[in-house]
Write a structure and sequence with these properties.
mainly alpha; 3 helices; elongated
């Protein structure tokens, strides 16, 4: 049993040495800070992360408006709602999405 454990350990060490590859360099944030400026580096990553978070929130908003639109369309087909409500929802939803996109664009420039 001891011989098997030693053999297993040697195989493990040999394979682990082969698997140790050089890690790729991290992608610099969009602000491109100078070398050694850790504060600017972290600030750049926070900026990029907030932009991605804003885009995710906008995507959820688009999906939510689409879901509500389909639900209202289904209600209109069943006679539970009027077609004018579907039109109003489409116009108001488009205005809300355009306004949200504008606010996200303006917020991206703040950082």
């Amino acid at each position: 049993m001891l011989l098997i454990q030693k053999l297993y350990l040697r195989i493990y060490i040999a394979i682990s040495d082969l698997l140790r590859a050089d890690l790729p360099t991290a992608v610099a944030p969009s602000t491109a800070p100078t070398d050694g400026d850790w504060i600017a580096l972290i600030s750049g990553y926070i900026k990029d992360g907030s932009l991605v978070l804003g885009l995710a929130i906008a995507a959820v908003g688009f999906l939510w408006v689409a879901y509500v639109g389909f639900a209202k369309f289904n209600e209109a087909r069943q006679g539970k709602a009027e077609w004018a409500e579907v039109g109003v929802l489409a116009v108001v939803g488009a205005v809300v999405l355009i306004f949200a996109s504008y606010l996200l664009t303006e917020a991206a420039g703040i950082f």
